[in-house]
Design brief:
alpha/beta; Rossmann fold; seven-stranded parallel β-sheet; globular
Protein backbone atom coordinates (compact mmCIF):
# COMPACT_ATOMS: atom_id res chain seq x y z
CA UNK A 1 0.00 0.00 0.00
CA UNK A 2 1.34 3.41 -1.00
CA UNK A 3 1.78 6.16 1.59
CA UNK A 4 -1.18 8.26 0.40
CA UNK A 5 -3.60 5.66 -1.00
CA UNK A 6 -7.23 6.84 -0.74
CA UNK A 7 -6.11 10.35 0.23
CA UNK A 8 -6.65 13.60 -1.64
CA UNK A 9 -4.27 16.53 -1.91
CA UNK A 10 -4.40 20.09 -3.20
CA UNK A 11 -1.21 21.67 -4.53
CA UNK A 12 -1.45 25.33 -5.52
CA UNK A 13 0.97 26.79 -8.04
CA UNK A 14 1.69 23.36 -9.48
CA UNK A 15 2.44 24.18 -13.10
CA UNK A 16 6.23 23.97 -12.78
CA UNK A 17 9.23 23.85 -10.47
CA UNK A 18 8.62 23.03 -6.82
CA UNK A 19 4.83 22.85 -7.10
CA UNK A 20 4.96 20.41 -9.99
CA UNK A 21 7.48 18.22 -8.15
CA UNK A 22 5.30 18.16 -5.03
CA UNK A 23 2.18 17.23 -6.98
CA UNK A 24 3.99 14.43 -8.79
CA UNK A 25 5.55 13.10 -5.57
CA UNK A 26 2.19 12.91 -3.82
CA UNK A 27 0.62 11.24 -6.85
CA UNK A 28 3.41 8.67 -7.09
CA UNK A 29 2.74 7.84 -3.46
CA UNK A 30 -0.92 7.21 -4.19
CA UNK A 31 -2.73 10.50 -3.61
CA UNK A 32 -5.48 11.86 -5.82
CA UNK A 33 -4.40 15.40 -6.60
CA UNK A 34 -5.96 18.76 -7.39
CA UNK A 35 -3.45 20.98 -9.18
CA UNK A 36 -3.89 24.71 -9.64
CA UNK A 37 -2.21 27.35 -11.72
CA UNK A 38 -3.18 30.83 -12.85
CA UNK A 39 -4.20 29.40 -16.23
CA UNK A 40 -6.07 26.17 -16.92
CA UNK A 41 -3.60 25.26 -19.67
CA UNK A 42 -0.68 25.27 -17.24
CA UNK A 43 -2.60 23.26 -14.64
CA UNK A 44 -3.62 20.71 -17.25
CA UNK A 45 0.01 20.23 -18.29
CA UNK A 46 0.92 18.97 -14.82
CA UNK A 47 -2.35 17.05 -14.58
CA UNK A 48 -1.45 15.12 -17.73
CA UNK A 49 1.76 13.92 -16.06
CA UNK A 50 -0.09 12.93 -12.90
CA UNK A 51 -2.65 10.88 -14.82
CA UNK A 52 0.18 8.55 -15.87
CA UNK A 53 0.62 7.61 -12.19
CA UNK A 54 -2.81 5.93 -12.18
CA UNK A 55 -4.47 8.30 -9.71
CA UNK A 56 -7.32 10.75 -10.15
CA UNK A 57 -6.47 14.36 -10.87
CA UNK A 58 -8.36 17.63 -11.22
CA UNK A 59 -6.84 20.70 -12.89
CA UNK A 60 -8.16 24.15 -11.97
CA UNK A 61 -7.29 27.75 -12.78
CA UNK A 62 -7.23 29.60 -9.46
CA UNK A 63 -6.07 33.04 -8.34
CA UNK A 64 -5.41 32.31 -4.66
CA UNK A 65 -5.37 36.03 -3.81
CA UNK A 66 -9.13 36.04 -4.48
CA UNK A 67 -11.01 34.53 -1.51
CA UNK A 68 -13.97 33.60 -3.71
CA UNK A 69 -11.71 31.55 -5.98
CA UNK A 70 -10.01 29.94 -2.98
CA UNK A 71 -13.39 28.93 -1.60
CA UNK A 72 -14.34 27.56 -5.01
CA UNK A 73 -11.17 25.46 -5.03
CA UNK A 74 -12.11 23.81 -1.75
CA UNK A 75 -15.73 23.28 -2.82
CA UNK A 76 -14.72 21.63 -6.10
CA UNK A 77 -12.17 19.42 -4.35
CA UNK A 78 -14.74 18.13 -1.86
CA UNK A 79 -17.23 17.56 -4.69
CA UNK A 80 -14.63 15.56 -6.64
CA UNK A 81 -12.93 13.60 -3.83
CA UNK A 82 -15.36 13.86 -0.86
CA UNK A 83 -12.58 15.00 1.48
CA UNK A 84 -9.33 16.95 1.69
CA UNK A 85 -6.45 15.26 3.44
CA UNK A 86 -3.53 17.47 2.38
CA UNK A 87 -3.33 21.16 1.45
CA UNK A 88 -0.02 22.42 0.05
CA UNK A 89 0.11 26.20 -0.30
CA UNK A 90 2.86 26.67 -2.85
CA UNK A 91 1.52 29.40 -5.17
CA UNK A 92 3.81 32.40 -5.15
CA UNK A 93 5.30 35.17 -7.26
CA UNK A 94 8.30 37.48 -7.22
CA UNK A 95 8.52 41.14 -8.21
CA UNK A 96 12.13 41.86 -7.28
CA UNK A 97 13.50 45.37 -6.97
CA UNK A 98 15.63 47.43 -4.63
CA UNK A 99 13.55 48.95 -1.84
CA UNK A 100 14.12 52.53 -3.02
CA UNK A 101 12.76 51.59 -6.46
CA UNK A 102 10.01 49.20 -5.38
CA UNK A 103 6.55 50.33 -6.42
CA UNK A 104 3.39 49.97 -4.38
CA UNK A 105 2.10 47.48 -6.97
CA UNK A 106 5.24 45.35 -6.67
CA UNK A 107 4.82 45.24 -2.90
CA UNK A 108 1.06 44.66 -2.95
CA UNK A 109 1.11 41.98 -5.67
CA UNK A 110 3.66 39.81 -3.86
CA UNK A 111 2.01 40.12 -0.44
CA UNK A 112 -1.41 39.48 -2.00
CA UNK A 113 -0.43 36.18 -3.64
CA UNK A 114 2.22 34.81 -1.30
CA UNK A 115 0.75 35.69 2.10
CA UNK A 116 -2.89 36.57 1.57
CA UNK A 117 -3.25 33.68 -0.89
CA UNK A 118 -1.95 31.22 1.70
CA UNK A 119 -4.34 32.66 4.29
CA UNK A 120 -7.26 32.45 1.83
CA UNK A 121 -6.70 28.77 1.07
CA UNK A 122 -6.23 27.84 4.74
CA UNK A 123 -9.33 29.78 5.76
CA UNK A 124 -11.40 28.25 2.97
CA UNK A 125 -10.30 24.70 3.90
CA UNK A 126 -10.53 25.00 7.68
CA UNK A 127 -14.24 24.17 8.03
CA UNK A 128 -13.73 20.98 6.02
CA UNK A 129 -10.66 19.99 8.04
CA UNK A 130 -12.42 20.70 11.34
CA UNK A 131 -15.47 18.67 10.32
CA UNK A 132 -13.20 15.77 9.35
CA UNK A 133 -11.16 16.20 12.54
CA UNK A 134 -8.01 15.57 10.55
CA UNK A 135 -5.82 17.23 7.94
CA UNK A 136 -2.32 18.28 6.93
CA UNK A 137 -1.50 21.82 5.86
CA UNK A 138 1.97 22.48 4.45
CA UNK A 139 2.93 26.02 3.51
CA UNK A 140 5.92 26.78 1.31
CA UNK A 141 8.01 29.63 2.72
CA UNK A 142 11.69 30.32 1.93
CA UNK A 143 15.15 30.51 3.45
CA UNK A 144 15.13 34.26 2.72
CA UNK A 145 12.27 34.64 5.21
CA UNK A 146 14.92 33.88 7.83
CA UNK A 147 18.10 35.40 6.41
CA UNK A 148 16.75 38.17 4.13
CA UNK A 149 17.88 39.02 0.61
CA UNK A 150 18.70 42.34 -1.02
CA UNK A 151 16.23 43.31 -3.71
CA UNK A 152 13.49 41.08 -2.29
CA UNK A 153 12.00 43.04 0.60
CA UNK A 154 8.48 42.22 -0.60
CA UNK A 155 9.17 38.52 -1.13
CA UNK A 156 11.06 38.12 2.16
CA UNK A 157 8.30 39.90 4.08
CA UNK A 158 5.61 37.72 2.49
CA UNK A 159 7.46 34.50 3.26
CA UNK A 160 8.26 35.60 6.82
CA UNK A 161 4.56 36.26 7.20
CA UNK A 162 3.87 32.69 6.09
CA UNK A 163 6.03 31.44 8.98
CA UNK A 164 4.05 33.48 11.51
CA UNK A 165 0.79 32.37 9.93
CA UNK A 166 1.88 28.72 10.06
CA UNK A 167 2.71 28.83 13.76
CA UNK A 168 -0.48 30.69 14.69
CA UNK A 169 -2.80 28.41 12.73
CA UNK A 170 -1.00 25.34 14.10
CA UNK A 171 -1.94 26.45 17.62
CA UNK A 172 -5.54 27.15 16.63
CA UNK A 173 -6.16 23.84 14.87
CA UNK A 174 -4.12 21.38 16.94
CA UNK A 175 -7.10 20.38 19.09
CA UNK A 176 -8.89 19.16 15.94
CA UNK A 177 -6.01 16.86 14.92
CA UNK A 178 -4.91 19.19 12.11
CA UNK A 179 -1.15 19.58 11.66
CA UNK A 180 0.15 22.81 10.12
CA UNK A 181 3.80 23.06 9.09
CA UNK A 182 5.98 24.82 6.53
CA UNK A 183 8.90 23.96 4.30
CA UNK A 184 11.58 26.60 3.68
CA UNK A 185 13.52 25.88 0.49
CA UNK A 186 16.91 27.42 -0.17
CA UNK A 187 18.36 27.88 -3.65
CA UNK A 188 16.56 25.32 -5.81
CA UNK A 189 17.31 24.40 -9.43
CA UNK A 190 14.63 25.95 -11.64
CA UNK A 191 14.36 27.30 -15.18
CA UNK A 192 15.71 30.59 -13.83
CA UNK A 193 18.79 29.10 -12.13
CA UNK A 194 19.47 26.83 -15.12
CA UNK A 195 19.89 29.94 -17.27
CA UNK A 196 22.52 31.49 -14.98
CA UNK A 197 26.17 31.60 -16.13
CA UNK A 198 28.37 28.84 -14.68
CA UNK A 199 30.40 31.40 -12.71
CA UNK A 200 27.26 32.67 -11.00
CA UNK A 201 26.17 29.10 -10.22
CA UNK A 202 29.56 28.38 -8.70
CA UNK A 203 29.35 31.48 -6.52
CA UNK A 204 25.90 30.36 -5.37
CA UNK A 205 27.23 26.92 -4.51
CA UNK A 206 29.96 28.50 -2.39
CA UNK A 207 27.30 30.13 -0.16
CA UNK A 208 25.68 26.75 0.58
CA UNK A 209 27.35 24.56 3.25
CA UNK A 210 26.48 21.37 1.34
CA UNK A 211 28.08 22.93 -1.74
CA UNK A 212 25.27 22.48 -4.24
CA UNK A 213 21.91 23.86 -5.32
CA UNK A 214 18.93 21.75 -4.30
CA UNK A 215 16.32 20.19 -6.56
CA UNK A 216 12.52 20.55 -6.56
CA UNK A 217 12.42 16.86 -5.62
CA UNK A 218 14.35 17.64 -2.41
CA UNK A 219 11.56 20.00 -1.39
CA UNK A 220 8.88 17.50 -2.44
CA UNK A 221 10.44 14.87 -0.16
CA UNK A 222 10.09 17.21 2.81
CA UNK A 223 6.47 17.92 1.95
CA UNK A 224 5.76 14.21 1.60
CA UNK A 225 7.07 13.58 5.11
CA UNK A 226 5.02 16.38 6.68
CA UNK A 227 1.91 15.21 4.81
CA UNK A 228 2.32 11.62 6.01
CA UNK A 229 1.21 9.77 9.12
CA UNK A 230 4.86 9.82 10.21
CA UNK A 231 4.40 13.51 11.02
CA UNK A 232 1.23 13.16 13.09
CA UNK A 233 3.03 14.59 16.15
CA UNK A 234 4.71 17.42 14.23
CA UNK A 235 2.99 20.80 14.02
CA UNK A 236 3.97 24.46 13.91
CA UNK A 237 7.41 23.57 12.57
CA UNK A 238 9.51 25.02 9.75
CA UNK A 239 11.49 22.37 7.84
CA UNK A 240 14.49 23.96 6.14
CA UNK A 241 15.50 22.32 2.87
CA UNK A 242 18.37 24.65 2.10
CA UNK A 243 21.66 22.75 2.20
CA UNK A 244 22.49 24.39 5.53
CA UNK A 245 22.14 28.06 4.51
CA UNK A 246 20.14 29.02 7.60
CA UNK A 247 22.31 27.19 10.13
Amino acid sequence: MARFDDKSAIVTGASRGIGRAIALRLAREGANVVVTATTLQNAERTAAEIEKEGVRVLALAVDVSDITQAEGLIKKTVEEFSAIDILVNNAGITRDNLLIRMSQDQWDDVLSVNLKGTFNCIRAATKTFMKQRRGKIINITSVVAVIGNAGQANYCASKAGVIGLTKSVARELAARNIQVNAVAPGFIATDMTDALPEEVKENLNNTIPLGKIGSPEDVAAGVSFLASDNADYVTGQILSVDGGMAI
